[in-house]
Amino acid sequence: QVHLVESGGGLVQAGGSLRLSCAASGGTFSALGLGWFRQAPGKEREFVAAISWSGGTIVFADSVRGRFTISRDNGKNTVYLQMNSLKPEDTAVYYCAAGSGYSGSGSYRDYRRYDYWGQGIQVTVSS
Q: Of 94, 97, 119, which Cα lies nearest the Cα of 5?
């Protein structure tokens, strides 16, 4: 069983930056693919970014490409989402997720392919 805990959310003005962290415990972190999803009020859960177990595959949603980066530190069992040039439409609850057995970028975008989820953390971008 893998336990995920997000941190680093909060309130920021448009154009600002935030870095989300997701610390994992249990399981073999270095073998896991990791993803970030978000859900705004009244909207469906949306894929944001993902990184493979090796870091060799990184996938972004079109809406965040060029503004967000994802990285992982296997020594600290932590995955990061650096969010720059934030927009009000980035406002959502952000969730960290983990799983295995991915093949191709499309599989990382599918929330059903993730086995473990964090509790979520609020990110609010004011205009």
A: 119
